[in-house]
């Protein structure tokens, strides 16, 4: 089967879908490429399911999916002193202006506290409000049950292996995206 054309690669990159044709590669046979393609489709499916779950959790708070993601990032990153917009932006892979806009909305809704950094007046530190913590605590039993259902088939060693491989794929997909954008 012929290698994918540059135009096919650009169109696939724009849509986020895997290529339909099988390029020749040093990595291996068409069979291994087919397995890789299926993994990509599985990752797309998982991403879609996680996005829908995020929307469901967000509805319980009366907020959007991206706002829920911001709340979860702050919850995870905050070690007691608050977390900066830049840190949250990096975690959720969004531009700082998007995070700033949405954290102001979340603050008005009573889910966040935003205070100036005592060491840098340009930095705003954010933490969950008592109301947000209370709502999360109320949801924790349901949250824990879903996590147990989704992740119970893997032990700690397997999860470490999956995590390392996903980090490698994340890094390489970022580089591949940059390379595609350079070609556009």
Main attributes?
three-stranded antiparallel β-sheet, disordered N terminus, mainly alpha, globular, Arc Repressor Mutant, subunit A, 7 helices, single chain, 3 strands, 184 residues
Provide a descriptive summary of the structure in words.
- The protein has 184 residues and is mainly alpha-helical.
- Among the domains are: 1-61, no CATH class; 62-128, Arc Repressor Mutant, subunit A (Orthogonal Bundle), CATH 1.10.10.
- Helix content is 68%, strand content 7%.
- The protein is built from 7 helices and 3 strands.
- It has helices at 6-15, 30-61, 65-77, 85-92, 96-108, 130-151, 156-183; strands spanning 83-84, 112-116, 124-128.
- The chain has a 3-stranded antiparallel beta sheet with strand order 1-3-2.
- A hairpin with a 7-residue loop joins strand 2 (112-116) and strand 3.
- Mean pLDDT is 86; it is low at 1-5.
Distance between the termini: 25 Å
Low-confidence stretches: 1-5
Helix content: 55-70%
Number of helices: 7
Could you give a short description of this structure?
With 184 residues, the chain is mainly alpha-helical. Helix content is 68%, strand content 7%.
Topology of this structure?
Layout: H1 6-15, H2 30-61, H3 65-77, E1 83-84, H4 85-92, H5 96-108, E2 112-116, E3 124-128, H6 130-151, H7 156-183
Antiparallel strand pairs: 1-3, 2-3
Helix pairs in contact: 2-3, 3-4, 3-5, 4-5
